[in-house]
Design brief:
Elements lengths: L1 H7 L5 H9 L10 E6 L2 E6 L11 E2 L5 E3 L13 E6 L5 E5 L4 E5 L5 E5 L12 E6 L5 E5 L4 E5 L5 E6 L8 E8 L5 E7 L8 E3 L2 E7 L5 E9 L3 E6 L4 E5 L7 E5 L2 E5 L5 E5 L5 E7 L8 H13 L4 H12 L10 E6 L5 E5 L7 E7 L5 E8 L3 E5 L3 E7 L5 E9 L5
Parallel strand pairs: 2-23
Antiparallel strand pairs: 1-2, 3-30, 4-30, 5-6, 6-7, 7-8, 9-10, 10-11, 11-12, 13-14, 14-16, 15-18, 16-17, 18-19, 20-21, 21-22, 22-23, 24-25, 25-26, 26-27, 28-29, 29-30
Helix pairs in contact: 3-4
Length: 411
């Protein structure tokens, strides 16, 4: 999934740039945060965390529930399990894309049943790419092939499906990002690259759209920078491209009736209404770290180690020979919203770092502090007292686990 996200792939949109400029430059405090308003936009400048060391949240080292085995019952063997959700009754649903299934497990991780199979019919998947929980423990999925959305009941039974209708034009690829309270969908529509593009570095624009339950476009949040990528070869008939190592990416998330979008150039996330009105800018004082020769060497090694055979390694070396490394790392690489409305931002992890840090902002945009997690794996969902996490072990066996989220009582 990491490679897919990097391949999905100029400053922030003109709207954000103009509004931020109108806010003027205010002297940042030595600690804490400042909150100010400009033209109806609340700007939160964060300098230091609110948590004391005793108040810092942490993630338990050992999961209370773990799914994923190397041998035995195949229902516990995960393959391209890119996402999972925890239902209100404690059950866990895993999007196991490698078998084109939604797998249901009870609150203790015991397998219950599966929904879906390979195909293009009702309740089937060809390229399962998204999973989210709706109210009442219903589920929504997205099949990248055909931009098809499917709804399943809490019992795993197929309910209905629909396709996006002309979401930003036929020249765009669409990715489902999240679900709004009225069950409309936030969709990212990336412009597709094609033959004839100039060689070198590109960062095209991407649209964020709100899609109604019939597949039609209801609102446009706005146009934002897309992900950085390199065109390696290009003719009138064909082209080859690769995501830029340490490149800037645009990240998005949804909570309640707000859309959170960050362009990755600076440590800033904009909070929008579904019809594109900027309501808040959440910022953190941050100096982008410089990319070193050691970072480039380690990154190249990661790419080569991920190549399964010598032919793939040879192709990877050709890409790396043309790679245009930036001078600095992006400030962050992912964002997500927890169930309580806190914003979690994954700080960009350089290759020399053994852990990944997530910075947590409360529902008002104030920085609470950072939480360290092992570098392997992703946070899939954050509840009031748990973390749902995906990781692969040293033998590349995939696991999904529920970990307690420890929140010491504040003084």
């Amino acid at each position: 999934m990491k490679r897919m996200r990097r391949a999905m792939s100029l400053a922030m949109s003109a709207q954000v740039a103009v509004l931020a400029a109108c806010a003027g430059e205010a002297k940042a405090p030595a600690e804490g945060e400042t909150v100010r308003d400009s033209a109806g936009i609340q700007i939160v400048d964060n300098v230091s965390p609110k948590w004391t060391e005793a108040e810092r949240w942490s993630i338990a080292d050992t999961p209370t529930v773990e799914i994923g085995e190397a041998e035995g019952d195949t229902n516990y063997q995960l393959f391209q399990a890119f996402d999972a959700v925890r239902l209100d009754d404690g059950r866990i649903v895993v999007a196991n894309a490698g078998t084109h299934q939604l797998r249901f497990y009870d609150r203790d991780g015991r397998y219950l049943f599966s929904s879906g199979r390979k195909g293009g019919g009702p309740g089937e998947f060809e390229n399962l790419s998204f999973l989210a929980k709706l109210s009442g423990d219903s589920l929504v999925t997205h099949d990248f092939n055909g931009s098809r959305v499917s709804i399943f009941g809490p019992d795993g039974k197929f309910v209905r499906s629909f396709a996006f209708k002309n979401e930003g034009g036929s020249s765009r690829f669409s990715f489902l990002i999240g679900v709004l309270p009225d069950r409309s969908l936030l969709v990212r529509a990336d412009r597709s690259s094609g033959p004839g593009m100039a060689l070198g570095l590109h960062r095209d624009t991407t649209l964020f759209l709100v899609i109604a339950s019939d597949g039609s476009v209801r609102d446009t949040v706005g146009s934002f920078p897309g992900n950085e990528f390199l065109v390696l070869t290009s003719t009138r008939q064909s082209m080859s491209a690769a995501s830029r190592a340490f490149g800037r990416t645009t990240e998005a998330a949804v909570h309640a009736d707000r859309v959170y979008i960050g362009g990755g150039d600076t440590y800033e996330i904009g909070v929008y209404t579904p019809d594109g009105v900027l309501k808040q800018l959440i910022r953190k004082r941050h100096n982008n770290q410089k990319v070193t020769a050691e970072d480039i060497e380690l990154d190249a090694k990661e790419w080569l180690d991920a190549s399964p055979d010598e032919n793939r390694k040879r192709a990877t070396r050709l890409v790396l020979d043309k790679m245009d490394y930036p001078q600095t790392f992006p400030p962050y690489s992912a964002i997500l919203m927890d169930r309580l409305g806190n914003l979690w931002v994954r700080e960009y992890r350089r290759p020399t770092e053994e852990q990944t840090s997530w910075t947590v902002f409360d529902s008002e945009g104030r920085m609470l502090g950072t939480i360290a997690v092992p570098k392997r794996g992703d946070l899939l969902e954050v509840g009031a007292d748990f973390i749902l996490r995906r990781w692969s072990d040293d033998d590349d066996i995939e696991h999904i686990g529920v970990f307690p989220l420890v929140k010491p009582t504040s003084r």
